[in-house]
Amino acid sequence: MELGQLRALRELGERGSIAAVAAALHVSSSSISQQISALQRHAAIPLTFRDGRRTALTDAGRELAAAAVDVEVALERAERAVTRYQGDVAGTVSVAAFHSAGLAVFGPLLSAMNGPGRPHLQLSDFDVAQESFPQLTSDHDLVLAHRLIGSPPWPTAVHVEPLLFEPLDIAVRRDHRLAALDAVEPADLRGASWVAVQEGFPLAYAITAIAGIGGNEARIEHRINEFRVAAAVIAASGCIALMPRYTTDLRDHPDLILRPLAHPGLGRYIDCLTRPETRERANVKSVLAAVKTIAAALTEGPHHL
Question: Which terminus, N or C, of the chain has the lesser number of Cβ atoms within 10 Å?
Fold first, then answer.
């Protein structure tokens, strides 16, 4: 049974004729007849009968018409609830992010949302492969995801809000030979020992691509996904790593420095993924606006270059 069919039956019981119902609903009489006929096909007993030249409701039809009123009331209540929900600036908004984005964004976001009438945040971090980020929108309102340049776009089932493009730089110790270069050529990386992310993650492919441009194969010594752990290994070993320029935090490692690649363009897109219906909520819009402001500010700060 469909709402339009129930509504046509209810109106027939109240207005007394198909013509009157059609006039009230601004449709044709044949359209009302089709709605009632379709409803009858779902019923085991007659809902209408001919009463002279007019169509009237049977007892069963009147019972179903009364139930249609309850359906209309429930629908109206649901619509009002959704309207209030969509317009509520407070309420809870869940935000998921990959590790370095969480490190850069979560603190400022909590500060921005601190105060009466602001959304309550539920924050989570996830270390997943690129293709797994869209799935997180099933359980989280906003998902901060990263996608390596040149990789397939996000699926059309999720809404994509671009936040920033983040170049990838070479992280080295200040006493490393590469630290003296203004920009690193792929050929300069020949013979270097790498700290790379786990296989299957975007930055692993980037390292392979850079080494290939330089005509050599990357020598991977360690595989570590967490950049802060990787920084500690670089400081202790003299290895190098590929690290994002804006979300890498080297404040605990003043002995490390980022050096840009001589051929710009290698980097990743940082986007906010949502389900289309989720982004209609006022509280989600409020949090997303704060995330965009924070992301824009990341490109303006010091980057240890």
Answer: C
